[in-house]
Every structure is written in structure tokens, then in C-alpha cells.
């Protein structure tokens, strides 16, 4: 895969170029480091939310299929799952914890080996309904994962989201790793609620990655204000959200289109 492109989001959330780092490190929570000369904690660098839109033709292709109003529901679902697979691949690049071991090859030789740490499965959090579709192929990319479904319903007038389902454990550990999926980040209200909930249960926002198909400026602004260190992986930043909360040009109601629901 090509190196990631960090985009400057239209809401003023600054992005910066991300040099591809190939070495795999064990990901842990971010802690303040100590200055060796004074023993005083170093001031933390200001955090900026990063929005990655990988410049890959396959990502563009599947996004185009999703955007088209003529794409039938089964194809919409498989395109969404495919896009999810590609975005999850990028999102876990420097996120998956690894262990160093040695393996014996068929030639009687021993090779150093880096493996995904089976003791720290990623906690995958799909926001129902459409977040589930985006995750369909996640198991093929991430060898060890646990799934915790959450469901929110949006009031059509106030656009406020309220939870009707939450399978997250009551207590989370500081070093738990989370991958939250929701195809459409329009206002960002639901995503903020999910991250708030993870933090209230003991998780850390630094250990959260968000995967979305399309994101819009109001969502990016809300998320950047509340969680400046967040990393968002998306196929596209669209320009607007209409008065009903739909992203324009967008792709319509992702859940309805994925499941063939008509009103
Ligand atoms: N949710 C959707 O499914 N589509 C949008 O455009 C916005 C929110």
C-alpha cells in the first residue's frame, strides 16, 4: 500500500504529512515523558486530530460504487465491506500490538518473526446498522479482535442521537485498543457519544481509531474540539451536511441502502 496522505480538513483541523514508519512497535497509552536534565515532565506537544484519506485507486473505486444511486443493495453492502477492509488495513498499520518470536521454517532454519499479539485483541465497535457492514471483512485483516455492538437512533428534528444498545464492557482497561466504525460522520454527535462512553468506562481516547467511508466538516470539528489526538481513516471528506443531517454529495442513508430498507 502507498504511504498515507494526511489531508487538511476543511474545518480547520490541521493535518500534517505522515512519514511512513515501517518498524512495528507495541502500542501503549501515551504518557508524559520526563526531561532528563530537570526531571520535570516535558510539556506535551499540542495534539491535532489527524484525518487520513489513503490515496488508493481501489478506495476511490469502491467509494464511486457506493455513491451511485443505481448500485443495488447487495452490491452496496459488498462495496462497503471491501472499503472497510482497505480502511481497516490502513487504520491498524501502527496500531496493532506485536510480539517478537522465532519460527522454524521447512528448511530447518530459524527465522525471527513478528506476530500480532494474541493477548491484546482489538476491541472493534461497530455503530449499528451500517458500521456492521463496514466491518464485515475486518476479521480477515485483524487476526485477533472482539466485537462490541452499539446502536444509536437519531431524532429526525433535533438530530440528537440516543443509545438503544450498548454491549461495551462496564470496565475497560487503559491499554485497551478500539476501532470504531460508522460509514457516515455527518454531525459527529453519535461518534462523540461512543468515545465519551469508552472514556467513562476507563478507555483512553489515544487508543481509539475511527473508520468511516465519508466524513463532513461539522463532525470533524466536533471530534477535533473534544478529542484532538484522535485519528480518523476515511475514503473522502465531503463538503456539506444538509438540514436533515445527510452528507452532500454523500451516498444517502448507508443503513437503508445496505439492507434495502425503503420508507
Ligand atoms: N447517515 C447516513 O447514513 N447518511 C448520511 O448522509 C448521514 C448520516
Automatic annotation (TrEMBL):
Required co-factors: Mg(2+)
Recorded GO MF terms: GTP binding; uracil phosphoribosyltransferase activity
Pathway the protein contributes to: Pyrimidine metabolism; UMP biosynthesis via salvage pathway; UMP from uracil: step 1/1
Phosphoribosyltransferase domain segment(s): 55-261
UniProt feature, compositional bias: Polar residues: 1-12
EC number: 2.4.2.9
Gene Ontology CC: cytoplasm
One GO BP annotation of this record: uracil salvage
UniProt xrefs under InterPro entries: PRTase-like, PRTase_dom, UPRT, UPRTase/APRTase
Region (Disordered): 1-50
Keywords attached to this entry: Allosteric enzyme, Glycosyltransferase, GTP-binding, Nucleotide-binding, Transferase
Homology family: Belongs to the UPRTase family.
The protein's name in its UniProt record: uracil phosphoribosyltransferase
Record organism: Pleodorina starrii
Gene giving rise to this polypeptide: PLEST003857
